[in-house]
Amino acid sequence: MSIFGPVIDVRPLFPLERQALLDLLRSLTPADWARPTVCPGWDVHDVVGHVLNDYMRRLSGARDGHAGAVFADDETLPAYLARVNGEFVQATHQLSPRLMIELLELLGPRLDEVWAAHDLEAPAGLNVSWAATDVGSPAWLDVGREYTEFWVHQQQVRDAVARPGAAQPELLAPVLGVFAQALPFTLREHDRPEGTVVVLEVLGAAGGRFWAAWRDGRWRMAEAGGEPVARVAMGQDTFWRLATRGIGVAEARARSEVSGDRELTDAMTTLLAVVA
């Protein structure tokens, strides 16, 4: 029995998200490219350079079988990612905004072809550590994680330049659904009787209800049903920002409504869907 929910197929959305990003980037002034973002030490140019890195990394790895950078001795995954991402972003300081836009436009469709070739229910090429560390991830969750990363980075740029957008339900709802797959991992330290159910309600046009249940000795994503012993409700903007630590746990809790088992609601409001 899988711990994850039903397949979320984000593959048709990559071109739509990318077009929104490209339209945004083409509208920016030189001053906009230098504006700071929520990513510590990174301006808009740096965040776009990081997205370009993601395109190149996944093409090189998933398409070409290139192993990429190796871990240093005793380097943790967060430290490794911080180092290699920082190295690439530093190198992109040599690239003009125009060239980075052109590279994103060129490489995006090639990456779309990689995603299209995936069997979504096969094992993932890269496991999603924030969803589980003891069971393998399905390919759809790996692909979904990449979509959420591109979408979130676009929002970080939009926040920096005060240009809201790309938040229509068809683009945002899958982001919320993928992030909700972190619920079982978030609750992992809290054993409960068989059949115990909790619900996370994400409010807004792109939102929904996400259920988790304790079954066969662990938390799993579940279909709606039963009386939840814990309920957390928060707006869609609050949820994705919490999941990516665009806001902290205390702020997310202040924006939420909770009821029921306090230990479980406290855990649910620490949900994290990025490597940190």
UniProtKB/TrEMBL annotation:
GO molecular function: isomerase activity
Keywords per UniProt: Isomerase
Pfam families the record matches: MDMPI_N
Domain Mycothiol-dependent maleylpyruvate isomerase metal-binding stretches: 16-157
Source organism, top-level taxon: Bacteria
This protein's record includes keyword Isomerase: yes
Keyword NADP: no
Protein name listed in UniProt: Maleylpyruvate isomerase family mycothiol-dependent enzyme
Taxonomic source organism: Nonomuraea monospora
